[in-house]
């Protein structure tokens, strides 16, 4: 099965700095890579995603890059703000055949606690 | 529209008791997933439903865990004879299936086994 490693486990930055979180995956057949933000006591929220046929995607202050050869992908947050403080999870999607059907199965990283100091 | 909902939001139970957790997916989403999230940990896959069938139960930790789904709507996760190590947040997610992998999460049920 798929295995996703996420680093760092904690990240502390000053407001206005950039933050980068990196993930590696093991199965080259993984085809979709979402990033979720989870605030304390809240549900995970999808913030950006990228498919395997794209190398980079940007949405305002956040961007994701994908290197399929090296099997790693990264989340970049620029001009960080205190409200960016949360736990961020990466995930890799692998098509699984089970019970005569196929579906996308997400394997998650362990999460990064991002703290942005004002 | 309405997102994924779960109930109860919190559940405290005594060791050995059975609990039932409920998930209402987004209307029209045929795929439904259950995850477990222990304190400070990532999301651990439990089970996947396509409609009301469960082709992948590989993540269920033991035979004390089971799940059902009625049609393409409500799902229940049942934990029998709860143990303290079952304490966690149980998250449900739903998604459209064909070519679309985005999963939308519910708020979770925080289960505490005393």
H-E order of chain A = EEEEEEEEEEE
- Judged by helices, strands and strand pairing, the structural class of chain B is mainly beta
| Sequence stretches where pLDDT stays below 50 over 5 or more residues of chain B | none
Can you count the beta strands of chain B? 11
The largest pleated sheet of chain B is described as: 7 strands, mixed
Largest interface, with counts of residues having CB < 8 Å to the other chain, equals: A-B, 27 and 27 residues
Q: What is the chain-wise order of helices and strands of chain B? A: EEEEEEEEEEE
Helix content of chain B: under 10%
- SS strand fraction of chain B: over 45%
- What's the quaternary structure here? heterodimer
Beta-strand residue percentage of chain A: over 45%
Q: Could you give a short account of the major beta sheet of chain A?
A: 6 strands, mixed
The best one-word shape of chain A is globular
Rg from Cα of chain A: 14 Å
Description:
The complex is a heterodimer of chains A (118) and B (114). Chain A is mostly beta strands. Chain A is built from no helices and eleven strands. In chain A, the strands form two sheets. In chain A, strands 2, 4, 5, 9, 10 and 11 form a six-stranded mixed beta sheet that branches. In chain A, strands 1-3-8-7-6 form a five-stranded antiparallel beta sheet, with no helix packed on it. In chain A, strand 9 and strand 10 (101-108) form a beta hairpin. The mean pLDDT of chain A is 94. In chain B, the strands form two sheets. In chain B, strands 2, 4, 5, 6, 9, 10 and 11 form a seven-stranded mixed beta sheet that branches. Chain B has a four-stranded antiparallel beta sheet with strand order 1-3-8-7, with no helix packed on it. Chain B is globular. The mean pLDDT of chain B is 92. The interface between A and B is medium-sized, with 27 and 27 residues.
